[in-house]
Amino acid sequence: MSTTTHTTTSSPLVQGYEVVIGFETHTQLTTQSKIFSRASTSFGAEPNTNASAVDFALPGALPVMNKGAVQRAIEFGLAVNAHIAEQSVFARKNYFYPDLPKGYQISQFEIPVVQGGVVEFFLNGEKKSVRLVRAHLEEDAGKSLHEDFIGQSGIDLNRAGTPLLEIVTEPDMRSSAEAVAYARELHKIVTWIGICDGNMQEGSFRCDANVSVRKPGEPLGTRREIKNLNSFKFMQQAIDYEVRWQIEQIEDGKTIQQATVLFDPDTGETRSMRTKEDAADYRYFPDPDLPPLVISREWVEQVKLGMGDLPRKIAERYVTELGLTEYDASSLTQSKATMIYFQSVVYGSGNPVPPKLAANWIMGELSRRLNSEEKSIEQSVVKPDQLAQLVRSINAGIISNNAAKQVFDALWTGEGSDADAIIEAKGLKQMSDTSELEKIIDEVLAANAKNVEEVKAGNAKAMNALVGQAMKATKGKANPAQVNELLKKKLG
User: Fold this and answer.
1) Pick the CATH number of 434-490 from 1.10.1130.10, 3.40.718.10, 1.10.10.410, 3.20.20.140
2) Could you tell me which residues come within 8 angstroms of residue 248 by beta carbon, excluding any fewer than 6 positions away?
3) 84-115 per-position pLDDT tens digit
4) What 8-state DSSP symbol labels residue 377?
5) Which residue, 281, 334, 425, 458, has fewest beta-carbon neighbours within 10 Å?
């Protein structure tokens, strides 16, 4: 088991109550076939066309373990610094729903494949860590389809048998914001290492939040599980509503009953779906059709060698080697595509670009444009080499930040493809002739005698006014810092 120590600061209180949140996340693994059969895992096929005799639970059909699913579990364990069990066991989890034709789900209970681990992230500049209890392999269930207008229900078993890695945390989170930050970091990890495509709309990354409240210092309260949260926005809304609801119930003298609830995004409310089962209700016992899963240390080491650096490690390098803040470093490693774009800007041309300035433009103007047009960074109109050329011009003092935004606009709209050519065509170069600038400043000082007297009397606003007049006289082509220096020099 992981021996990572969990440290927390004082928890924020909601109406005098402490919020306690734990997560169970079902990550669909990126194998081409199912965990115990050769049926395809492709999404969107016609109902029941991606299901085999094993998935239909036909008599005599036996499960066979998918090695690719096991390898992905190992990769996740290594990514979160967990213990990879040399031997783990599959169990039958018994419950009866139409979308589970066997009458049980093959899962892991007493001995999971991944044990312990920790997920670290930043929230409002503060480093947080959430301990993991386990991550275990299991098969997904099918899907019940209810056609209310004809009063019938159908079962689609395409999803039945799809390999899942269920990741379970300790109840370490103390706010909806912290829970969402954890979920985002976990999403980043599983997509970064390629074990899950992270598509929440298609159900590839499904989160269940166990929420309870208590007075500080009291034992843990009764939890209610919010099932199948498929967006970070709804996740925060659901947890916030559930917390308020539980506090209201307790304040009214009522008792919280353990239950499974669903979140309705239309009403913004959670509603009870069924009473929550305990482990004993599932009557777990070892699956006689599957031998223990044995993972050699050699296999683990082989998998480790094939894995690249993880985002947290790369972010640490950005801080120590490039001088970025932890926030900037974390933002630039939010996805592999963002990291590649940033590194292409900084190192791509062989003519290095200042990392902090590049980071500011990627996280600022570029992100704003991408968000407004709902594009991913891979779809950016402005390519890394174009942004690098623009950033170098800013750093060299050739153009101002305001002029740079005009150049970026031209690149984005396709008005031009070369930053230097756009600067030249639009006449955006900053003034480099000091004698010419001094002449303009002398004229500004002569025309603004009142402001000059106020500056000499210690009025900082009057100084800003003079800078503004000088910038106006140069049509924004002067370097503001140079204007400031010359004004200070001339005013003594």
Assistant:
1) 1.10.10.410
2) none
3) 999 999 999 998 888 889 999 999 999 999 99
4) G
5) 458
